[in-house]
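Hey,
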Amino acid sequence: MDEQLQFTIAANTDSKYPGKRKNQDAVYAFADVSDDNIPYGLLIVADGVGGQKGGSKASQITIETVSAYLEKHWSNIPEDPAQIEPFFCEVLEKSILHAHENILIQARHHENRMASTVTCAVVYGRLAVIANVGDSRTYIHRKNMLEQITKDHSLVQWLVEQGHISPEEALNHPYNNVLMQALGAHETPEVSVFTEPFLVDNILLLCSDGVWGTLSDAEMVALIENAGDLETAVTDIMTNAQDHSDDLTIILAQLNKAQS
């Protein structure tokens, strides 16, 4: 990699009633630089399902399992550049399925049904490998637009795909919180995996439905572009999305040229 790059992150999560209700969302964000100066990192947003106690436990198991699984594999990155993308696709999918199994074990142990959504991204240099189960989302902000990379595993998304309702009708559909896939559900989830180029000044945005269900893409774009830095943008998005209807979680991550 010719130019020196750095990977910067800002993240936040909060309950829909801060200080009064347990947050069922969980967040993890890690960034580092390899020995050969390649920036890399892992970003995870999980939204627990199944009551306050069960949901918060499921989301915490998700981020702990996925992050621990990736931690064991950072040292195994292939030397062949052509193998890096399939390597991370496989590792990320296996980590999520491992989280699913861990949630099932915990649920059986406590006789308490629990589940979680997840969206996560591995960044390695100019590559982003993104995965999701459920309706937590990952977007990329580039060219003054916000592009949704993940596809919701939800009933309303299925209805849109089948042509039964329009995307506009899906926004306020009475069943917009019904999931078709989740970690900890009875059936093994189908993990959706995507790869995207992650270029300088692109911004990854990961969030739970408490954020994207409250703010439109245009509103999020405006808040990102009017902020002077990622931390300010995260604060502004959290403030504007807080309508006390759901827990909120967001990560913003950007690849920049390192300051000389």
